[in-house]
């Protein structure tokens, strides 16, 4: 199985072309679209999405990851292997989050016999990464792809800081609903994740909001915090976009405290 992540979108034929190349090399595989709606060139977003997604796929899955603003430059192509998974893409930091969780061994993509006969300077997803993923699925050994490498590009991933009764973190990602996903796991409070969330409040840009146990509980509360499906605190608005409500951005600081509080902003 090949899981395909990119910033190609669906308006152009790029995704379909890459799938066509893959099936021309190994026609009995399944190519699953993880997402093609990564913001153009947003490597951090791609790394985060890959990091929260890979573990829900069966072992043996090959992740084809093409968010590649440096295409055509001297940046390397790499394959990572570990934990029963494989990752194919550019060496630009896209594998930072999975590298934090898995003990990955990386190989530089050097074997041109695995590429398409003609390689463009703008579409390595079609000409290099897609074919390499297909050949991996077909059974090509990792050692045939190229030499092992250790010094891959790793992005700076902010870590939450616990100080007394508070956790300080920041916004990492916005989903299509406008929810703001932070780097704060609520189990930092007691180590189990079983703390009553109603005893917590979250603050951002000087505003304080309650933390609720489900979206329905946030109805009529304006902005609220919630423990999302990825295990991290999210800022949300019931049937709305917190990104639009608060005009917040990735990197904005967030704090969670184990104290009673009330919203300081009315909408």
TrEMBL record:
Pfam families: SAM_HAT_C, SAM_HAT_N
Domain S-adenosyl-l-methionine hydroxide adenosyltransferase C-terminal: 169-255
Domain of life: Bacteria
Domain S-adenosyl-l-methionine hydroxide adenosyltransferase N-terminal: 2-146
Kinase among keywords: no
InterPro entries found in the cross-reference section: SAM_HAT_C (IPR046470), SAM_HAT_N (IPR046469), SAM_OH_AdoTrfase (IPR002747), SAM_OH_AdoTrfase_C_sf (IPR023227), SAM_OH_AdoTrfase_N_sf (IPR023228)
Alphabetized UniProt keyword annotations: S-adenosyl-L-methionine
Family listed: Belongs to the SAM hydrolase / SAM-dependent halogenase family.
Name assigned to this protein: Adenosyl-chloride synthase
The species this protein was found in: Dissulfuribacter thermophilus
